[in-house]
Amino acid sequence: MIHELPFDKGLSRVCTNIRIDDRRDKSRKMNDKLTSVQKHLENSGENL
């Protein structure tokens, strides 16, 4: 998982923060949510 990546690169300490954004004023399908998460994960790799 993404938390393990820095350890695999040799770091000995990692801090992982998880933010949950729960929106209930719009109806969205699970596929839309998964696509959004995958997009964010791909973009977060650019910052490593």
From TrEMBL:
Residues 39-48 have a biased composition (Basic and acidic residues). It holds the Pfam family Thiamine_BP. Residues 26-48 are annotated as: Disordered. Residues 2-38 form the Thiamine-binding protein domain. This is Uncharacterized conserved protein. It comes from Staphylococcus aureus.
